[in-house]
Structures are given as structure tokens and as C-alpha cells.
Specification:
Shape: elongated
Distance between the termini: 65 Å
Strand content: 5-15%
Strand order of the largest sheet: 1-4-5
Number of helices: 9
Order of helices and strands: HHEEEEEHHHHHHH
Helix content: 55-70%
Radius of gyration: 20 Å
Largest sheet: 3 strands, antiparallel
Mean pLDDT: 89
Length: 210
């Protein structure tokens, strides 16, 4: 075996070894013939904040069912996308998508700063959803100014467009939703992501209790 092939196998082994044990266990169950019959995505509210997401999976192999509870991780999400596993309903799918977008945008926050990222994101969403009243109404609740359009602007805008575009594509290509269903899920996911980034629901709960 040439060195390139050897190195590739070592890399695959290393990536598998770094996978969270519950994800490795789930992968092994799937290899044994279990299929994921039901996927529930939950984020419980602790007082005013949303907790970390948990997946509840019902697995079935010829009538032999088992329930697995697995904490969210990028590796778990990758496996679920590989297997084209949809959430239990579209509301949960949108909640799942919102969390995926929140995680993806953290890289932009680290590179360009959250305030600058928020300005670019606000501008991008205002353009992409210019004909969507729900999104426009939500954007109106958050004051924003035109971001400085230097070199960083182009990079930040490109990254944000890619995050949103990749998620939209995954809904149809990986999870196999119809275009209409994917559009609705995508919009709800963006609404929730923006709400959570700006603590809009949290602020309402704190100051009005509703």
C-alpha cells in the first residue's frame, strides 16, 4: 500500500476514534440492521433560557424496538444527514435547523465579531426575505446600521450566504423535503435563529411575562 493510502486509512480511523461514544454506538446499531423509525428533537427551557438539544431516537429491527437518548453533536448531525433522517414533524425540523444555524454562525462571530456579523446578517436577511412579512417584522425589532464594506464584509457576507445556502440545500438534498416544505421549514428556522441570537423572546418573557 502506498503511503497516501496508508495515511488516508489512519485519518479515517482517527476521525472514527474522535466520534462521541453514543454516536459510534448508534452507527454500530445501524450497521446491525436497526433503522431509525422516529427522531425527536428537544430543547427544554430552563427558566428563561433554552437548554442544549437532545435527540430521542426510536430504533427498529424487525419489530425489536429500542429508545436511545443522545446529546446533540456535529458528528451525530452528520450521521443523521447521511441517513436522511427527518425530525418527527416540521416544527421540530425548524427547531433543529435554527440550532444548526446558530452553531454555524459562531464561527463568523469569532472571526468578525458578533456585532459586525449581526449587521451583515441583518442586511442579508432583509434582502433574501424582502417579500416575507414575518421575517421583515422580526428584523424591524432589532436596530441595525449598514456594515462597513471593506474586505471583511465580502468574506463575512459570503460565509453567511454559504451557511444559509448549505442548510437550505440539505433540507431538499439530504433530508428529501419537497421544495415547498423545505421553504417553510427554512423560514421558520431563520426566524427562530434570529430571535434567539437577539434574545427577543427572552426579553419579552423577562419584561412582560408573556
Amino acid at each position: 500500500m502506498n503511503s497516501d493510502g496508508f495515511d488516508e486509512l489512519l485519518s479515517e480511523r482517527s476521525q472514527r476514534a474522535e466520534e462521541p461514544p453514543p454516536v459510534t454506538f448508534l452507527r454500530e446499531l445501524l450497521e446491525l440492521g436497526f433503522r431509525i423509525e422516529k427522531l425527536s428533537f428537544r430543547r427544554d427551557r430552563d427558566h428563561f433560557s433554552l437548554g442544549e438539544p437532545i435527540y430521542f431516537l426510536v430504533l427498529n429491527r424487525e419489530g425489536n424496538k429500542r429508545l436511545e437518548r443522545i446529546e446533540w453533536s456535529p458528528e451525530l448531525e452528520t450521521l443523521l444527514f447521511e441517513k436522511a433522517v427527518q425530525a418527527e414533524n416540521q416544527e421540530q425540523e425548524a427547531n433543529r435547523g435554527a440550532y444548526l444555524l446558530i452553531q454555524a454562525l459562531r464561527a463568523a462571530d469569532r472571526k468578525w465579531g458578533k456585532d459586525y456579523t449581526d449587521c451583515v446578517l441583518h442586511e442579508l436577511l432583509a434582502s433574501l426575505f424582502r417579500n416575507t412579512k414575518d421575517v421583515q417584522d422580526l428584523l424591524a425589532q432589532v436596530p441595525s446600521h449598514k456594515p462597513y464594506q471593506g474586505e471583511g464584509y465580502v468574506e463575512c457576507l459570503s460565509y453567511l450566504r454559504k451557511c444559509l445556502g448549505d442548510y437550505a440545500s440539505r433540507l431538499m438534498d439530504a433530508l428529501r423535503y419537497s421544495q415547498d416544505d423545505a421553504r417553510g421549514i427554512f423560514t421558520r428556522a431563520v426566524l427562530q435563529m434570529f430571535d434567539e441570537r437577539h434574545h427577543l423572546t427572552l426579553s419579552r418573557l423577562l419584561f412582560t411575562g408573556t
